[in-house]
Amino acid sequence: MFTCRSRCSVFRLGLFLAFLSGCERPKAPAASVSTHQLSAAAGFIEWADASGNVFVLRTFDRDTNGDGQIEGKTGEHGEVEGDVPTLHVVDRHGRAILQAEELLATDASARFFVAVVGGKGVLFDAQTRGTTDLNNIDLSSDGNPCMKPRAAAFDISGRWLGWMTQDQQYRVRDLRTGAEQQFKPPGKLWRAEPVPYGWVAMKIVGDGQAFPRAKTSCACSWCPRFARSIGNYGFEGESTAYLVGPDEAFALTAAWLPLSPTVLFDTRSQTLKDGSLPSGCKVAAYALGAPALVLACGATTELWNPTTRVRVPLDGVRVSGPQTLASWTRAPSSFVESVHDGVTSVSVLNWETGAVTKGPPVRNLVGTFGEWAVGQTENQVVYFSVDGRQWTYPGTAQKAHAAFQADVDFGVNLETGRAMPRTPGELVSGPCAITAGFKQIAVPTVVCVD
Length: 450
Fold this sequence. Notes:
- The protein is mainly β.
- The strands form 12 sheets. A 5-stranded mixed beta sheet has the order 26-25-24-23-28, with no helix packed on it.
C-alpha cells in the first residue's frame, strides 16, 4: 500500500524527467552540460526555484566588520564570525533579478517566495519573474532570529499566503484565485500561518505581555546549516494557539484540518467537528489542502466531499493516511496507486471531482516529490508528472538523502527529458545540480543540462 509522505524543503531535490504524451523515450543519455558560477564571491545558495533558473544567494562580498579584509567565517553554532553576507537573487548565469534585503518565506512548490525589497514586503513568482507588493505588511521582528521571520508565511500546500499587517490584522491571499481575506486576531498576535480554505492558525499572547523568546544558542535562520552544535531549551514566555476563521475563533485543542470554509476534520480522532461520516464508512485517507476525504465503506472505496455530500466511487484505487498534494494550480491532486486487471499503475487523483488519471504500470511506487512520482518496474525507473508527462530509463530506484534518486549514471532535465552525467552534489529539481555552495561556504556553482 502506497502512502505519500513527501516533505517540503528549501530545495526541490531529486532526479526527475518529463515527456509530452506520444513522444519517444530517449535511446541513450545525452545532452550538453554547462557549469555556472552564480557569483564571483564565496557564499552559499539558500533557495532555488523548481526549474533551476532562479537562485537566492548569500555571499561574502563586503567588509562589514571593518577589519580590512572580506572573510566568510562561522562559529560553533553557525553564527557569523567574519563579515555579514549579502542577499542576492540571480539567474543561473549570475545576473541580478531582484535587489532584495531579506528573505521572509518560501512556498512548498519552490515557485514563490516573499522578500523585503526597498523596505517593503514583496511576493516574487519565479515562473513569471513578477512581483506583487504585500500592502500594509508588518515587518517588525519578535526577537527570535533563529526562527523564520514572523511577517509572512505560506500554508503547507503553498496555495495560501498570509502576512501580518500594521493595523494588527492578518491578511491571506489564495494564490490560485487571487482572492484575499482579512482576519482579526482574538488578542495580541505573536505568530500565524494560513491553513486551507479561509482559516488561520494563530499564536496569541496576553495583553501587555512580551512575545515569547526561544532559549537557544542559534543566532540566525540559516545558521544551523553551518553549526557544529546548537542547544535548544524551550521558550521564555507563553502563548495560546487558536484556529481563526472569518466569523469565529477557538482554542486549537484538536488537530483540525479545514476541508472548506465551514467544515473541519480532526486528523487524530478521524471525525468532523460538526456532522458525521456516512454510515458504515471510515476515513482511509485525506490530503492537506484538499476538500474531500477518501472513505473505506465496507469493500468499496469512495471520495466523499462533506460540504456537498457528493460521493464518488474510486474503483481500484489504493491510498491511505495523510497525503501531500502534488499540485493545486489546476485542481488539488495527488498520486495514488490504482489496480485494474491485476496491473498496478501510478495514477493521479483529483480531490475535487474524484477523477483518476491512469499513468504507467509499475511494480511499486517508490515515492513522490512535488509534481513528480518515481516508480519501479522489473528493470526500469519510471518518472511520471501530475499533468501526464513521463520518461522511462533502465535502472533501479531508491530513496536517498530525503530525495528520490535513480541508481543510474545520469540526471534528467524535467522539462525536456534529456539526461546529464551524474555530478557529485546536491541536486536541484529540474536541470541543475549544486556542486559548491550548499553545505559549505564556497563560490556558488551549479552544473546544468541545457
